[in-house]
Amino acid sequence: MSFPNKVKIVEVGPRDGLQNEATILATDVKMKFINQLSETGLSHIEVSSFVSPKWIPQLADHKEIFQVINQKQGVHYSALVPNLRGLETALSAGVKNIAVFTTPSQQFSQKNIHCSVEESLRQIADITQLAQQHRLTIRGYISCALGCPYEGEIAPKKVAEMALALINMGCTEISLSDTIGRGTPLQVQQLLHAVSSVVSMTILAVHFHDTFGQALANIYAALEQGISTVDSSVAGLGGCPYAKGATGNVATEDVVYMLDGMGIETGVNLKQLVMAGRYIAMQLGKPPLSKTNIAMNIAS
User: Of the residues 144, 148, 171, 240, which is catalytic?
Assistant: First the structure.
């Protein structure tokens, strides 16, 4: 059994986590949160989304956040951009790393971004063309890669075709997202087998929600297949505003604890990460969902 020696963790709590929380936090609270994450050893932090405040008011201060956080050398700070207007705003804020997103599900695409899958790919082509002119790094998310709340099962072949299309547009990393958290380890392996037949495993990442409690098992299965990039959200923040019942992302603390126990390097200080998780959970007025965070609190 072979596992990677090192895993890159992409912290998505400030974006994917906070966008689904009912509480709208003040900019200075988010700033403190992101600055705390920057001191944990994380190398990639997704800060916000340049989407219209009409759709996601929780992230309305996207531009201000990039202007006030302490951008630590060696840490990659990124933002999700849904369209050209969002990219232009991101560029004016000095963003250097962006992410785009699409899905193989027509119904989810209509619910989420109000257009067809084909239209979303055309929008991404426009975004990536301009982003490449400005020498930005581009990440691509494929939502509902392991199932859709409206269409049910998604064929791995569809996901593979979409991953190849995103690479051809200029994405240098593809994150396969189990948006509703319904996937199981065998399904993860089948998906990765299909996608890695057309796209190198080295540029694939996994993004699991923990709705059915399968996230850590799914990550383990992905590691076995050669995945070395994992998305997670401190304190288990998040969900999906367009997928009813989808719970938070897998908690970063739990991922780091598991990887530490497997002897896999992450570069992340677990104690500092736990403190960041407790801080943001307190600001949201709820306990952290991370089992590791809760256990370490009891132990102390």
Answer: 240
Q: Return the H-helix or E-strand segment holding 230.
A: strand 229-232
Residues 79 and 47: their CA atoms lie apart, in Å, by 6
- Any catalytic annotation for residue 240? yes
Q: Could you report the per-residue pLDDT of 178-224, keeping only the tens digit for each?
A: 999 999 999 999 999 999 999 999 999 999 999 999 999 999 999 99
In 3D, which of 103, 107, 108, 151 has the Cα closest to residue 123? Answer: 103
Separation between Cα atoms, residue 80 and residue 40, nearest integer Å:
22
Query: Residue 102 belongs to a domain with what CATH number?
Result: 3.20.20.70
Other CB atoms within a 10 A radius of the CB of residue 220 amount to 15
Please write the tens of the pLDDT for every residue from 110-124.
877 788 889 989 999
Q: Is residue 1 included in any domain, yes or no? A: no
Q: Say if 187 falls within a structural domain.
A: yes
In this prediction, residue 300 carries a pLDDT of 62
Structural domains counted in the chain: 1
pLDDT (tens digit per residue) in 221-258: 999 999 999 999 999 998 655 455 556 899 999 999 99
Q: What size, in residues, is the chain?
A: 300
Residue 2 lies in a domain: no
**DSSP secondary structure letters along 28-48:** HHHHHHHHHHHTTT-SEEEEE
CA 196 to chain centre: 20
